[in-house]
Amino acid sequence: MSSEWPLWEVFIRGQHGLSHRHVGSLHAPDAECALRNARDVYTRRNEGVSIWVVEAAHITASSPSDKGPLFEPSESKVYRHPSFYDIPDDAGAM
Amino acid sequence: MYAQMVKTARVGVKPRDEMTEQERAFQDRVDANEKIEPKDWMPDDYRRTLIRQIGQHAHSEVVGQLPEGNWITRAPTLERKAILLAKVQDEAGRGLYLYSAAETLGVSRDELIELLHQGRMKYSSIFNYPTLTWADVGAIGWLVDGAAIMNQVHLQRTSYGPYARAMVRICKEESFHQRQGYDIMMKMAFGTPEQKAMAQDALNRFWYPSLMMFGPPDQDSVHTAQSMAWKIKVATNDELRQKFVDQTVPQIEYLGLTCPDPDIRLNEETGHYDFTPPDWSEFFAVLKGNGPCNKDRMKARITAWEDGAWVREGMLAHARKKAAATAAAE
User: Fold this and answer.
1) What is the tally of structural domains in chain A?
2) In terms of pTM, does the model score above 0.90?
3) Given CB atoms, is B322 within the 8 Å cutoff of chain A?
């Protein structure tokens, strides 16, 4: 059996109420150690107030070849953006 | 620069009409400054060159802890000791960011470490020089980390996403490293005559090895062109070396020290300093394993890896046992 520790992805929430953000990865034997290592590696300079770790093998990612079918449809739907609509200045702030 | 003499698989840039359609599309993305991400298609040579370059960079961070580790227990004050510990801890962290970036290319960290230990991968030549006095710790921060910044700032724009992101993190830390080094140099250079002599001696010994960090001259650097076309190298060795010299000479003057190169002078026409190139035969000898500390460095790395094996295995066995017990209880 391989003795290489599994890979974990690390997410940190900064201090200003933002959502957790992916900051990098590390190896650890289990979740508890992953959390402790993440604290040592990724929060040495007040980068965060909360850490999530998830084993990399448990992440399902979209494939680059699906980029077209997944994301192109939204390109043509300009009416989903507020800038699509011309509202006269006379109508006031909106 | 922590990655020297990284060989690309070919000499010169592959001409566009020799590229496959896939390679052309890839080059177009690189030219448009799009980031290449782990699951994207990439030419095999791009992948191989990046693994070598990032791996060498990671090894340099890890081996680079050793010359400084020599002084942790002998730092002159508790504050200096805490600072040096923080710096060495950063270096361990960077080794980790960089190995992780390399792993996204389909190689494991253990494989890379294995290659280093077998002598099949390299680390920067600079870490094969000894740290004889406390002033050397200052010179390393100031000159060695200063040279590393020159390169790493550019690499934040490198084409491979995970490598570029690791560089952004590293650059945030590197400035602390360089400034703490210069701070040590100022203390020494403005101190007693004995301290100033130590500072001068450290500068004398680290000047040329620092210039070597950027790798051989451009005319001998046959792999630069393809790496630059792929944007995994963003400036040439000579450009970076010149920039480093231009930045460092005024800092030497501020300290009241003397550059060990007697022929260094500002060229009024170019606005750059003319300087004596390092002895490249020394560089190649050190890279081949014949520097003053190559054997010690590798021995320390291999011993640490082997002595730590039971801890790594024990922790994994414990984690597996715990997971099995949890599963059984459910």
Assistant:
1) 1
2) yes
3) yes
